[in-house]
Structures are given as structure tokens and as C-alpha cells.
Amino acid sequence: MVGNALAMQQDLVAFLVKQYQQLGPIFRVRALNQEFVILAGPEANTFVTQMGADKFRSHEVWDSFGCEFGAKNSMLAIDGPPHLQMRKLLKPAYSVGNLLADIPLLVDIAQTVVKRFQVGEEVEALTLFRLIVTEQLGRALANHAPGTNLQNIITTIRVGLNVHMTKQMPTFMLKLPSYKRAKQHYLAMGKEIVAEHRATERDRKDLVDNILEASQKPEYHDILGSEEQIIFASLGPFVAGLDTVANECTFMLYELLNHPEVLAQCIEVADQLFSEGLPAQEQIRTRDVLHDAMMETLRLHSIAPVVTRTAAKDFAFAGHSVKEGQNVMLANTVSHFLPKFYPDPYTFDIGRYSEERKEHKQRGAYNPFGIGTHLCLGAGAAEAQIVLVIATLLHLARVEQVSPLSKLRVKNDPTPTFGTAFRVRFSEHRH
């Protein structure tokens, strides 16, 4: 009855790597009352990328999450042409160019948060980065700061995803007063954002302006035809970095603090970026030691280590048949831990991305943002934001891990995270 549930819960990717090495690129696992067909390794990554556009759908996985907020047919839950149409609408706002269009604003937000903490003060690293990342995305994409609603956003999204998507929480969690209050405040913030944008004419349109404009067009009626759908889409920026960029910044800081020689190089680069005021877009996007450390962090601690889908049709892969309607898990990051791609794969090694090695450029070897038609829309922006946030922190302050000898365990809640276990102490304000 239990099947592989315990092993998958302890370390899902490590479990899938072991099965891939023993069984090959397609196999079946059972966990409690669910059965999954697993597609893993570089063979699966190449197959999904090149031939998988019509073979997988996300509706069964994501539809109930959108419906929780009255948003049937959210972009997460639709496939085919409607999904591509919605991606085309949202992509400009979630692009790296748009995010980095106002670097002074992004740096000012990070600096304001960092200055809250006195020398000697301790903070959960995830909290620190959520304060920075969520406000940066909210202000840049929706012209709205989360303010006192940050905890309401965290509670709403965490419970909603863990109940509807990962199934880690029972459905009665949705009836708890704490969740219902948080959800009410979260949606009220969405209504406020939409009302502000309807009442204001801006020269430079942001994500919410684009959504409101599209909602008036017949071709978007099924996706943005109701006020609930408009609000849900408009709240996207506050969810985008909450469990992704913020957690990746946490993982990157952890790796840097545990590799002092790399940390010293990153501090030097960060100071260079700010040596003549504020860094330019091109500098943030340039390959340097900060960029390579970010890439290696994403390899070891991917934002989307697996992707859960439903088979949209019968198809064959690696000599085996998959039937329509079967639960499928695309194990896109199994390749990250294969020695044939990455020698000593569990070691943090930023040299992997050098011009001489380029280990991540091998076919099917590097997929930290998911895979397939629902690939993370803001992948490029996420990479740039991680680099900018970490560079700003390293330039402004020196931090140290509160319990450097403690072994931190990564858990899924709902994405991979240290949670509140990783705490840092401000030991110096540098600039």
C-alpha cells in the first residue's frame, strides 16, 4: 500500500536518479493511492522538448488550484493554443528586460529591507529574501507592494498548493479560519490592484494593464472573462517569486557561506557592480562568478525538480507505451546528478559553466525551470533577479550562518526549501 511513498518523500530526486540508473528512462512507481509513469534522464528531456507538445496536459494537476480562487481556465491549467495565447500575452511583463528596466527601484527595495536589520540581529534567510523578492516583483509588474499582506500571501499559496497540487495537506485545511482569513485578504489585495489600474492611465503599461486590455477582447473570454480570472492573473507577480526566487536566493546564500573561496570572489564581483553607482542591465546578465554560482545553485536546488502531468494521448517512449489519462512525472532534473554529465555531481562546483567545460550545454543535461510547453515563463527574469538580489546583499552587508555545523534538510513545502531552518546573522554593514 505504501509503495515508494517514503523514499519519494525523503528525497524525491535522489530516489528517481537511483531508479533511472537501475531501470532506464521510463518506469512506474506507486505511492499510497497514486501510480505514476516516470520519464527521466536526458532521453526523456530530449523527447519532451522535441516531441512532447501534444502528449501531456496540465489540466488535472492545476485546475482545482485555480478554481479555489474562482479562476477556472487559469494559465496553469490550460493547454494547447489557449495556453500559448496566454503565454504570449504575459511574456513581455515577465521578461528579464522588463524586470531590469528599473534597477534603481529594485536595489532601493533590497537596501531598505537590509537596513532594517542591526549588526548582530538574526533572521530566517527565507524571510529576508521573501521581503525583498515579493516587493520587487509586485512593484515592477503590478505597481503594488505586498506590505502587511505578505504573510497572507504566504499562507494562501502554501495551503492552496499543498492541498490542490502536491496533495501534502488534507482538504480540511481549506476550512481553517486562519486560511480563510488569509485568502480573503489576498483576494482583497487583488481587487484593489485591479481597481487601481482601471482608474489610472500609465504611459508605461505593466502586467495588470495588459491583462485588463486583453480581457476586453473576445479571444480571451474563456481565460479572462470573469473578474475572478482577471484578479487571479493579476496576482501572479506576488506568487511568482514567493517559493521560487526567494528559495533559490536562500540556497545560493547557503552554498556561498559553505564555500568561502567562492563567497570571496562573489563579494569582489558584487562590489565591482556597484563601484560606479548602480549596475546596468548588461552587467547583471553578463557571465561572471555570480552568474556561475547562480547556475550551480539551480542545478543542485532546482525550482522545479519534477513536473507532474497527465498523458493527453497514447504514445510510445523508449520502447514502452503510455496510455491516455495516466499520471506522468517528468523527472527533468535527474540529469543534474548523472556523473556522465557532471563529474562528482553532488559537489558545488562553479567551474562547470566555464567556456572550457560547458557541462550544462550537453543535450538534456540542464533543466532547472521545468520542461515542456509549461516551462517557467519568467526563467530568464528569475536568473537575473537572483543575481541582483545576492549581489546587492553581499555589497551592503556581511552575513554568517547562525548554526554553521547543523545539517539542513531540504523539504517540499510546496517547492524545495530549507523553510525556517536556515538562519543568518548580520555581522557587518559594509556599504
From TrEMBL:
Cofactor(s) needed: heme
Pfam families hit by this protein: p450 (PF00067)
Gene3D superfamilies associated with the record: Cytochrome P450
InterPro entries per the UniProt record, alphabetical: Cyt_P450, Cyt_P450_CS, Cyt_P450_E_grp-IV, Cyt_P450_sf
Family annotation (CDD domains): cytochrome_P450 (cd00302)
Keywords: Heme, Iron, Metal-binding, Monooxygenase, Oxidoreductase
Domain of life: Bacteria
Similarity annotation: Belongs to the cytochrome P450 family.
Protein name: Cytochrome P450
